[in-house]
Amino acid sequence: MAAATSEQREKQAELQGLLCGVVQTLCTRLAKEDNGKAALLQYADSTMEALLRVLANPGQAGGAAGAAVAAASVHEEAMQAVGSVAIGVGRQFSKYMPSFYPYLKAGLLNHQEWQVCLTTVGVLTDVCDAVGDELAPYSDEIMNMLIHNLGSDAVHRSIKPQILSTFGDMALSLGAKFEKYTEAVTRMLQQAMQLSAAQAAQAALDDDLADYNNELRMGILEAYSGIFQGLPSGSAEGPLRADVPLILEFANTIARDQASEEYDELVVRATVSLLGDMVTTVQGVGSLLASQRGQDWEKLLSWVHESDALGSDLDWAVNAISGAVQAAA
């Protein structure tokens, strides 16, 4: 039964949001269990049907501001629930894409309710992980929207680092089919590196800007890593070779943070991982690193060696970098 008043619409949206949250929690837990995927697949059709109805008319909001805010909130909850379904059912999610894609597109274009747009970008990552290269029929339009959002002043800046990171997810998902986007994406990444480097000095004096700059760095680093890993063996040589010196200088910029105790662990991890991806993917990177021994990027490797917080999961990258440098010396 349709809600008649603004108060009823607000309450309906609140209830829908709570139910979507329950769906998200259940799907996440089932995805971690041995027999969970079978259960998810059994109820996936009815679950997606319900979630798509919510996305089509979240809380039947309209009129009062409170109802509109509640509608935006339930839209986010429904999107996140769809993301959990995608993760749970994997490539089987492809059959829902024709019905879900219009809402994904609408979310990416929703610049006014920026939290909805940000949530949608996150769900796109889940969809990439789930469907792999079956995303290809939608990828041209998705990439155009993401690139447009990056260049638009109307898009909240908090969304842009996540968009950069999503380029890496798209590359991992599409593999060789991502190659046609590489030139446009690397151009955006180069601009983002310049922006990050330009605001690094000011960020040292402004905690909010420092946090944002680290988010921007993470987006750049994750994008490049995804592209290096996603493109087939040998395909990264041409389109990414010119970016290698720029990435190395970006690593130097990150390492110049005023003191090692100010390093962001996630940023250091992503930087060292990216350097590892480069030396294992592009020929000649070891020689470049060897020619720049003593520069700031080496501080990151030293910090990793001395830090217990990062564990041993970066050993592969450190060993790859060290081996490539020694081989080129």
Automatic annotation (TrEMBL):
GO terms for biological process: protein import into nucleus. Residues 5-281 form the Importin subunit beta-1/Transportin-1-like TPR repeats domain. Keywords: Cytoplasm, Protein transport, Repeat, Transport. GO terms for cellular component: cytoplasm. It is found in: Cytoplasm. The keyword Nucleotidyltransferase does not apply. The keyword ATP-binding does not apply. Its main location: cytoplasm. InterPro entries: ARM-like (IPR011989), ARM-type_fold (IPR016024), IMB1_TNPO1-like_TPR (IPR058584), Importin_beta (IPR040122). This is Importin subunit beta-1. It comes from Monoraphidium neglectum.
